[in-house]
Amino acid sequence: MTNTPRVPTTRLGGPTGPEIGVQGLGCMGMSFAYGPTDAGEARATLERALELGVTLYDTADAYANGENEEFLAPFVAAHRDEITLATKFALTVDPEDSTRRIIRNDPAHIRACADDSLRRLGVDVIDLYYMHRRDVNVPIEETVGVMAELVAAGKVKQLGLSEVTGPELRAAHAVHPIAAVQSEWSLFSRDIEAGVVPAVAETGATLVAYSPLGRGFLTGSFTSAEKDLTEGDFRRRQPRFTGDNAQHNTTLLDPVREVARARGVTLGQVALAWVQQRARVHGVSVVPIPGTSRRTRVEENAAAAHLLLSADELALLEPIAGQVRGGRYADMAFTSAGRE
Ligand SMILES: NC(=O)c1ccc[n+]([C@@H]2O[C@H](COP(=O)([O-])OP(=O)(O)OC[C@H]3O[C@@H](n4cnc5c(N)ncnc54)[C@H](OP(=O)(O)O)[C@@H]3O)[C@@H](O)[C@H]2O)c1
């Protein structure tokens, strides 16, 4: 184990919110989306993250149909008061077709999902409860109204929204304070900077940056989803990781590699430091949640919370996102960008 210093802290959702590490841990890949993992190593990773001051743990009921929540339950039980536990509702993998997603924001569904997540996680309250995806058939005010009832009932402490647009966030925030907005944000995915990030700055929510390592691509650990990743891996369906796009996008890592080499750090650390610094430019508080099931990587990622890039280094990295080929999802309709 390395002597990685603890990550600094911030407050979730503003000055009165709970204190959390400025980097969280994405737990999705421990059970879902990115191929097989070693459960023992994943459990050790949860523990190591906490030792490093990583206290926001991110899951969702959609991750392996609740299995990811169940996987986390023993860790949560052992550390209930030391961690901030976030989960989500609204998204289900279609049982008939694993590539299809069903999105529901109707009140009965939200209430049932919350009870199911509480049971699977083995807790009596969820610290941060997100709407995972927006169902455009339900007004956002109605969705947040039901989420606010969960707060009033003591089942949820704070509310979050994932993949919402700026106007949706403002409308939601008028109904109940929104502590966190979870959106994809990385050197490869910057579409939220136009409309979402300014609204986050305005409302004072914390921006929880998901896939800050570009789903691993920014670390250089794979260059082509078809060649390097296993059959069921979700990334094999993402346009930017396949075919000619992947080949082109790999070349975009050159400046990341250059900065990493000069600073004696890894590509992933440069990518994580970039998210922290980009947030400062926009005046938002950010908590990236890189996902990993390996202790060595959680140490590496946590260390990036102390890396400060220079203005020249940031300038070198600036053009990357504009040159990426292929969308961040095959179907962008379910993202904030798809509704802007
Ligand atoms: N709200 C949403 O719609 C949404 C969507 C996607 C994800 N999320 C959340 O965000 C979290 C993070 O996103 P993500 O997992 O999609 O993407 P990510 O954090 O950008 O990348 C994760 C991938 O990078 C690898 N990795 C992690 N650290 C590494 C390192 N230091 N060196 C090399 N490879 C490394 C991981 O593999 P190993 O595990 O093998 O280390 C994994 O394959 C998820 O776990 C989930 O909780 C939310």
UniProtKB/TrEMBL annotation:
For this UniProt record, the keywords arranged alphabetically read as follows: Oxidoreductase
* CDD domains, A to Z: AKR_AKR13A_13D
Q: EC number(s) on record?
A: 1.1.1.-
Q: Which residues form the NADP-dependent oxidoreductase domain?
A: 24-318
InterPro entries xrefs: Aldo-Keto_reductase, NAD(P)_OxRdtase_dom_sf, NADP_OxRdtase_dom
Source organism's superkingdom?
Answer: Bacteria
Keyword Oxidoreductase in record? yes
- Record Pfam families: Aldo_ket_red
Q: What protein name does the entry list?
A: Aldo/keto reductase
Which source organism? Streptomyces cremeus
Lineage here is: Bacteria, Bacillati, Actinomycetota, Actinomycetes, Kitasatosporales
